[in-house]
Each structure stands twice: as structure tokens, then as C-alpha cells.
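Record 1 of the preview.
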Amino acid sequence: METKDHVWLKVPEVAEELNIPRSRAYELIANGDLPAVRIGEKSIRVNRRELETFLLETRRVVAS
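->
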């Protein structure tokens, strides 16, 4: 039932989408920069819409 557009992403999936190391994704979550929910003791999920909002709010224009 998993599709490319599933709503809740695991941290490794977030890292893959952002093309960053998994450790950096965990750091963004721990710092509160990227909203996430903890399910049980080990599972962390990020809502896809929250990830998109994070990207839009933190984007910067990069001069070429």
C-alpha cells in the first residue's frame, strides 16, 4: 500500500527526498526545525506536507 505519495515519511525517506545524510535529517528534527512525531520509542515520522512547508520556508535564492 506504500506509494510515492504516502503522507507520513520515515526519516531515511526524508533524507533521501532532501538528498542529505540521515544524521542531518535527525538533527533537523531534534532542533525542532523540521516537525515530526514519535510513534512508540523508536519510530519517527514526518508529514509530507510539513516537509514541503519546511522547504518553502527555508529556501534561499542561490546566485549562479
